């Protein structure tokens, strides 16, 4: 029991030792640029989180580098260029349209069009199926069955 309590206390203590980043800015514009950049850039480790939301070590390093660039007076485009040059287009949530990312941009449209084509072909095939006309024997059998059901 004591070992369990020790483990629980150790887990809570280790999580409380997590570092909290505090940055001071000279102007509100710098702070706004920093917040915009860390919200716009993707964490390369987490992939579905931006730098602001990620707690990975790489995200912390990238936030630190973003802070350095902002404090050095770099513009938004300069920060993006630095990150893309170093980490590739994957660091952006909205990569630019170019030959290497063309499939990424056109892929959903292609899947939609192929799906639409398959749906139309399926529906068209169903409407083209014609049933054979009923023979006289079939009409008589149907009339008998309907006559049975009448009270």
UniProtKB/TrEMBL annotation:
CDD domains: CcmH_N. Gene3D superfamilies: Cytochrome C biogenesis protein. Pfam families: CcmH. The chain crosses the membrane at residues 102-123. Keywords: Cytochrome c-type biogenesis, Heme, Iron, Membrane, Metal-binding, Signal, Transmembrane, Transmembrane helix. Residues 1-18 form the signal peptide. One of its GO terms (biological process) is cytochrome complex assembly. One of its GO terms (molecular function) is metal ion binding. GO terms for cellular component: plasma membrane. Residues 7-146 form the CcmH/CycL/Ccl2/NrfF N-terminal domain. Belongs to the CcmH/CycL/Ccl2/NrfF family. Possible subunit of a heme lyase. This is Cytochrome c-type biogenesis protein.
């Amino acid at each position: 029991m004591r070992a369990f309590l020790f483990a629980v206390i150790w887990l809570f203590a280790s999580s409380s030792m997590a570092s909290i980043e505090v940055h001071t800015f000279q102007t509100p514009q710098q702070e706004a640029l920093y917040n915009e950049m860390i919200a716009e850039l993707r964490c390369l480790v987490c992939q579905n989180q931006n730098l602001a939301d990620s707690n990975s070590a790489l995200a912390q390093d990238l936030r630190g580098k973003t802070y350095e660039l902002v404090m050095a007076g770099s513009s938004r485009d300069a920060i993006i260029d630095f990150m893309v040059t170093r980490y590739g287009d994957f660091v952006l949530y909205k990569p630019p349209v170019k030959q290497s990312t063309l499939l990424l941009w056109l892929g959903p449209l292609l899947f939609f069009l192929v799906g639409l084509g398959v749906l139309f072909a399926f529906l068209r095939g169903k409407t083209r199926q014609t049933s054979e006309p009923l023979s006289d024997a079939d009409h008589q059998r149907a009339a008998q069955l309907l006559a049975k059901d009448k009270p």
